[in-house]
Amino acid sequence: MTVIRQEDLIQSVADSLQFISYYHPVDFIQSLHKAYLNEASQAAKDAMGQILINSRMCAEGKRPICQDTGIVTVFLKIGMDVRFEGGMSVTDMVNEGVRRAYGHPDNVLRASILSDPDGKRQNTKDNTPAIVHMELVLGDTVDVHVAAKGGGSEAKSKFAMLNPSDSVVDWVLSVVPQMGAGWCPPGMLGLGIGGTAEKAMLLAKEALLEPIDIQDLIARGASNRAEELRIELYDKVNQLGIGAQGLGGLTTVLDVKVLDFPTHAANKPVALIPNCAATRHTHFVLDGNGPAELEAPNLDDWPVITESSGATSRRVNVDELTPELVLEFKPGETLLLNGTILTGRDAAHKRLVEMINAGEDMPVDFTNKMIYYVGPVDPVRDEVVGPAGPTTATRMDKFTETVLANTGLIGMIGKAERGPAAIESIRKHKSVYLMAVGGAAYLVSKAIRKAKVVAFEDLGMEAIYEFEVKDMPVTVAVDSEGTSVHQTGPKIWADKIAAKLV
After folding, report:
1. Is 120 exposed, middle or buried (0-12, 13-18, 19+ CB in 10 A)?
2. Is 199 found in the same domain as 82?
3. Are residues 222 and 339 in the same domain?
4. DSSP 484
5. Which one, 25, 35, 60, 141, has least CB within 10 Å?
6. For residues 129 and 95, what is the distance between their CA atoms, to the nearest angstrom?
7. What is the tens place of the pLDDT at every residue in 180-235?
8. Domain that holds residue 388
9. String of DSSP letters for 210-267
10. Model confidence pLDDT, tens digit, residues 23-44
């Protein structure tokens, strides 16, 4: 019988979470680099370039790839000839590992987990509890997969109970465009088919733990229905033209993974879960000989890309923004922002709207200001701020009209598309929405030269900050006329791909 010390599992989980916070899987980087080299859409190519630059910076600096350091999911296959030594349950050991990892003084990770999810939504402060799945299997080892899943991509998960005769391909092709860009493509799609409702979701999540190998599969050919689906969906999803960050382009997915399970004759449960450009997972096995030893990847496997902001970029002093200047911004144009911007996301917007409705004064002056939807990681050492990439802008859509109508705010910065109501408010108030690249949080943080909390300090990472930025790269995603590149870009590229113009 193998004896596993509880400290070995705790430390292995903690080390794994630190490891995946700053090291992309090498298969992901190599696949993304190939897509970058093949991309014909300049906007999508620039976005992928930023993700690759960010990835190398994170690997070298050992800081988080994305400011959303995720909700932790752990899969354990525990051999029946294993005995744990210690007084904690397996779940408690995992949670202690999470606690250590997220509070590591040299690489603090953002605590994003809230208790009382439909009530007070209070931050648990240490990113616990994790989602833990355990299976007893034959053997004398403990096989562990550790993953950290960002909220933006998890929010785009889909499930359907199809009829037995329904097409899985048709369903996937109908829901992927509905997912928008909040899951930060290009990434992977995990598809679970069969079992019951909860089993299909679990299969989809487990599928995302597998390495990217779609090109090898295409070369050798499919040997079963799951592999046939992978190839067909990889081709057809990319033909949608959604592209990197939803800007339109040739690559929306780097791979599609499919796991299936026997199901009831009356059912065909299907689950789809995307993995974003900050894909984070690793694997280790404990055999009783101490904690896992995770081998750092070779940075020679990372491409060296010259930082570029595109041919249309222009510098903008945000401290001198006027409504007239905003009217000049064109859809798809790249801007380099300089000066001071404010931040605020879900909790701050909710509080601002409550204050507006109560007739209270605003805590800061928003007149002709930009607000950046971000919840940054805490800084370490000499950092001004930790990784500070954008959060999904659509979550702020329901607040947009009230805020634009009552504060003097002139523009917003986030990731992914805006919904119809927000776009109409932007058009109505002659405002602008700018998009920063999701999955490039450390790179964005290097453009932030000063940071201070100016309101709602009790909200932690959701407080309102004032950032002083230098050459912060953004794309005009919705202009003052209400034209959205997330609507025009994918259509243009889907048409080009269909006509084989690229």
Report:
1. exposed
2. no
3. no
4. B
5. 60
6. 6
7. 999 999 999 999 999 999 999 999 999 999 999 999 999 999 999 999 999 999 99
8. 314-489
9. SPP-HHHHHHH---SHHHHHHHHHHHHHHTT---GGGS--S-SEEEEEEEEE---TT-
10. 999 999 999 999 999 999 999 9
